[in-house]
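SUBJECT: A protein chain and its fold
Encoding: whole-number codes for local backbone shapes
RECORD BEGINS BELOW THIS LINE
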Amino acid sequence: QVQLVESGGGLVQPGVSLGLSCAASGSISRDYTMGWYRQAPGRQRELVATITSRRTINYADFVKGRFTISIDNAKNTVNLQMDSLELEDTAVYYCHYRTKDAFLRYVEYWGQGTQVTVSS
């Protein structure tokens, strides 16, 4: 089992920055992918950014260079720095962890979600 604890989020104005952090604990694998997804009201959950334990990074196209994901392997923590926030970034942001078990099957866990609201 893996537990994910998110922090950050809140209410901000357009154009400002905000950081999210997610700490993983429990049975952490050596090779894993962590990242952030988001879900806005009435919309499906979508990928924001992911990073592997080997620091391979993937961003959604809408990030447009505004967001930066990073990982602290020693602390099993993934951070998402969000700059130039837009109204459309308003959503619940979920931390995600995925690895493979001994049978090479994907195993994944989700955080409880943290609200990010961008409003003027």
